[in-house]
Design the sequence.
């Protein structure tokens, strides 16, 4: 979202609920909402001391409620009591490996949790827009790439299935009840504030900074679509504004760099920017993962006027110093 749109007063005094506020994306959306003059209320499950929510002091400026997505009564009360007008549902169990180990917990948090959020919104007269976080993983294995929004959602493994279900349930609430919903299908998001060191970018930076062995789960050949966090926050804020508009409401949009990148090339770029001579060990030990996933962003360009502002190298140049400071 450009500076003009941020300054036009749309968000000022808006009551906004955000789930997953201690998470990577949720914390950054919350930070942007506060800067825009909104009145956010955050649903917080765990105390995560290194998260932006606590580390950057966002909690001091935010009304927040401790609770779980699985608690429908709580969600209904929060949305009603705080008269939420815009809802950003980005809270989820986001770990692919955790989903493999605990599919039931993942399904409860992601599928039941999303049902609860959507149903609570349906029962509210104040809600004007609901932005639901999906993922490129929702598409599953496709015969043709890049993924486009009209492709079927065919998740096969637990995490992917949970995202396919969330996506379809959100569409159902629009088609059945007219709930003003939009869906964000995002590529692999990286940047400052991500504390998940199982993800590629944080893991490589941490290993290099601490002189640890750089053991990678793949063989380096998988293709992925990476996108910098500030571009993703722009996308969410734009959807929050535009969800009520004809041609946007009820729609899903892909957000990413729109470019397929080999994992090996991403790792090599990080090593070069860090001036490291570390040699990755490609273990090829990853299980139940799709070898190639990347998105077309033509729909977001055409309908929303959204474009990523940061290429991979530009995003990494902002990301690496943050981790070096965190680790030091």
Sequence:
């Amino acid at each position: 979202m450009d500076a003009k749109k941020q300054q036009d007063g749309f968000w000022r005094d808006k009551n906004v609920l955000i789930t997953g506020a201690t998470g990577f994306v949720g914390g950054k959306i919350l930070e942007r909402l506060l800067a825009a003059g909104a009145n956010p209320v955050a649903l917080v499950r765990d105390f995560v001391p290194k998260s932006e929510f606590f580390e950057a002091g966002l909690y001091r400026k935010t009304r927040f409620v401790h609770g779980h997505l699985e608690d429908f009564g709580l969600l209904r009360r929060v949305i009603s009591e705080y008269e939420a007008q815009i809802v950003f549902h980005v809270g989820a169990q986001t770990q692919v490996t955790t989903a493999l180990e605990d599919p039931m917990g993942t399904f409860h948090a992601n599928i039941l949790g999303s049902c609860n959020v959507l149903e609570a919104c349906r029962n509210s007269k104040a809600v004007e827009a609901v932005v639901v976080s999906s993922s490129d993983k929702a598409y599953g294995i496709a015969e043709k790439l890049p993924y486009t929004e009209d492709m079927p959602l065919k998740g096969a493994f637990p995490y992917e299935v949970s995202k396919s279900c969330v996506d379809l349930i959100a569409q159902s609430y629009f088609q059945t009840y007219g709930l003003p919903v939009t869906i964000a299908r995002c590529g692999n998001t990286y940047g400052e504030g991500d504390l998940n060191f199982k993800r590629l970018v944080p893991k490589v930076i941490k290993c290099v900074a601490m002189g640890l062995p750089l053991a990678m789960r793949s063989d380096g050949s998988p293709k992925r679509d990476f996108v910098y966090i500030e571009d993703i926050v722009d996308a969410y804020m734009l959807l929050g504004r535009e969800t009520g508009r004809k041609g946007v409401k009820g729609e899903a949009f892909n957000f990413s760099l729109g470019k397929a990148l080999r994992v090996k090339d991403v790792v090599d770029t990080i090593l070069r920017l860090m001036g490291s001579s570390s040699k990755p060990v490609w273990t090829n030990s990853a299980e139940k993962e799709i070898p190639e996933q990347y998105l077309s962003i033509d729909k977001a360009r055409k309908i929303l006027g959204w474009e990523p502002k940061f290429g991979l190298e530009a995003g990494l140049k902002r990301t690496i110093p943050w981790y070096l400071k965190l680790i030091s």
Summary: The chain has one domain: 3-189+227-258+294-310.
